[in-house]
Description:
2 copies of one chain form a homodimer. By secondary structure, the first copy, chain A, is mainly α. The first copy, chain A, contains 6 helices and 3 strands.
Amino acid sequence: MENSVRWLTSEEQHAWRSFVRLHEKLGGRLSRLLQTESKVSAADFAVLVHLTDVPEGRQRYQDLARELEWEKSRMSHHIARMAGRGLVVREDCLEDARGAFVVITEAGRAAIEAAAPLHVEAVRSLFLDHVTPAELRTLGEISERVVAKLDEDPS
Amino acid sequence: MENSVRWLTSEEQHAWRSFVRLHEKLGGRLSRLLQTESKVSAADFAVLVHLTDVPEGRQRYQDLARELEWEKSRMSHHIARMAGRGLVVREDCLEDARGAFVVITEAGRAAIEAAAPLHVEAVRSLFLDHVTPAELRTLGEISERVVAKLDEDPS
DNA sequence: GAGTGATGATTGATACGTCAAGCAATCCGG
DNA sequence: CCGGATTGCTTGACGTATCAATCATCACTC
């Protein structure tokens, strides 16, 4: 048993546990909602959002993986499944024969347009509606700062 | 296309996306750390924490599932795997022959005592160290309030 | 006290994420 | 150029999460 551990005070413990519960519950609710009400999962949604943000709806696997913070193998597996459902297609890359593009299909665009209002409404009613603008600002600042720290110091 | 959707303002959008990224990154880091440095996963850790909080280290499947917000089938599968690794044992319930207890073993206690300092240190260095006490208080309040709302209104 | 429904847990199918290994295509130092 | 290292993606195996179906037991009612 280490004696040098900086254990949490009870305030820290309480805040941390609440925060963890929030993540579990909110994340669970949102993805369950998307899953059951639309036909895209939270992961599908994230992919489709990025593809609609980009010219022609085409992006390299690696770029997509970097933006979503996914492993490349996860991207391969997931895109293969999405392609099977017709939401995207895989396209070979001419400039670099190793590479490949993910391209959103019409069905993909239709799926995300159908899911987006639902998702926004859920984010509002499950979260934003219960948080003041000042709190939201604080939360945004904390999130950005911590994410930056995590990026600085890779595991 | 619905016209009545209350789309997010750019401030809301920014804060929300940062928050989601924090969720993804911090969760990923913590569970990866636990996984590689100790021999218990984040899920194992949560189970063991609850069992050490309770008399004799025994608790019913359903109670454990409720506290962790897990599905009962997840609990069954996971406890079966943990039992296979000797961290817990399953025990029949005398009062209700349908029910069963999960009981932490000595090996389970040893595992969590080994993992706890590491976990606390990670929570500090990856998160708490980058947040002021005031921010942490705000975060705790937000979390509690939103969790309460989510509990009120079941999906 | 038999029938009906609810409860506590298990099981199997399927989907998903991660890891390590693999395979091409490309880059680059000599 | 040529050979080894690197890059971009794929694959297979494994552990894990979810869903629906199942089974045994219990509770309630008539």
